[in-house]
Amino acid sequence: MSVDSAWIARAEAAYLGLALGDALGATVEFLTPREIAHQYDVHRDIRGGGWLGLKPGQVTDDTTMSLALGAAILADGGEVHALSCARAFDAWMRGKPVDIGNTIRRNLIAFRRSGQPLAPPSEHDAGNGAAMRVLPVALATLCRDEADVRLAVRAQAHVTHNNPASDAACEFIALAVQDFVRGEALRTVYRRRIAPFVAASPQFAFRRRRRQNPSGWIVETMQAVLQALLETDSVESCLVDVVNRGGDADTTGAIAGMLSGALHGMRSLPPRWLKALDPDVRATCQRQARALVLCGRCDA
């Protein structure tokens, strides 16, 4: 299996989609849909602000943790080792990021004390913090068999989130991104990935009602993301839909962005958003996306 230019372009679109969704959603994170409508009518521009007081185009932990993970994978020649991931995340935390989730902070502090890179299993760690940063693993394992992909996904996830619901979502996201990067249509991925994912983990069922104000619980995150992905036809419409639901909007935006970016490609990324995105983040996302795909031994 060999890499073609279309794969690389869709991988770049996925990484940029993650950053754009993060930057767009951060403005309205923790607001309710009614509060968003009152302030913005429909929030559709990258403008910064929000509870973190971000500059326009600035990203949060969703993107910066992904970039830290991607750098660690590249340093290890495309392999995903839990200890390398833990060290990369610890260095990221020491850099005083603009935001950090409680579960991530707690388990990285435990890593500092013990040197053990894998967090113990916990029913309380079903947050979305491992899912938001899984994209580099998906790109680095693009040409691996599914069993290897799942092992690599868990190696990075379990550094901070050792939980079955988190695992299920992370594995689904990585495999669906890979399908889209390889050019599969949404209807195909629905049959191959989405329907089996929900059948195997019924708590993720998303057809019952529109998920508004999704929390950091991975179940609510994925319900909102899947609804937005399936009910829209572009990166812009998908991200505008999901972030205007409020709640943990930077992370729903980041996950929806990586999936819709991989599905719809570079041409679907709004130029005004790309112009607004921090230029260093934009360049690093594109550079990492290309490097991760090319280091994935697709020509081996």
Question: How would you characterize the overall build of this protein?
Answer:
Helix content is 61%, strand content 0%. The radius of gyration is 17 Å and the shape is globular. The chain has 14 helices and no strands. It has helices at residues 5-26, 33-40, 61-75, 82-94, 102-114, 135-140, 146-157, 164-181, 186-200, 218-231, 235-243, 249-264, 271-276, 279-294. It has a single domain (5-294), classed as ADP-ribosylation/Crystallin J1 (ADP-ribosylglycohydrolase fold, Orthogonal Bundle). The longest helix has 22 residues, at 5-26. It has 300 residues and is mainly α. The model has no long low-confidence stretch (mean pLDDT 96).
Question: What is the gist of this entry?
Answer:
With 300 residues, this protein is mainly alpha-helical. The protein has helices at 5-26, 33-40, 61-75, 82-94, 102-114, 135-140, 146-157, 164-181, 186-200, 218-231, 235-243, 249-264, 271-276, 279-294.
Question: Features of this protein?
Answer:
single chain, 300 residues, mainly alpha, ADP-ribosylglycohydrolase fold
Which helices and strands appear, and what pairs or packs with what?
Elements: H1 5-26, H2 33-40, H3 61-75, H4 82-94, H5 102-114, H6 135-140, H7 146-157, H8 164-181, H9 186-200, H10 218-231, H11 235-243, H12 249-264, H13 271-276, H14 279-294
Helix pairs in contact: 1-11, 1-12, 1-14, 3-4, 3-14, 4-5, 7-8, 8-9, 8-12, 10-11, 10-12, 11-12
Strand percentage: under 5%
What is the helical fraction, as a range of percent? 55-70%
Q: Measured on Cα atoms, how large is the radius of gyration?
A: 17 Å
- The CATH class designation is Mainly Alpha
Stated plainly, the CATH topology is called ADP-ribosylglycohydrolase fold
Distance between the termini: 8 Å
Low-confidence segments, ≥5 residues, pLDDT <50? none
Structural class: mainly alpha
Number of domains: 1
According to DSSP, the number of beta strands is 0
Corresponding CATH architecture: Orthogonal Bundle
Outline the biggest β-sheet. none
Say which CATH homologous superfamily is assigned.
ADP-ribosylation/Crystallin J1
Number of helices: 14
Average pLDDT works out at 96
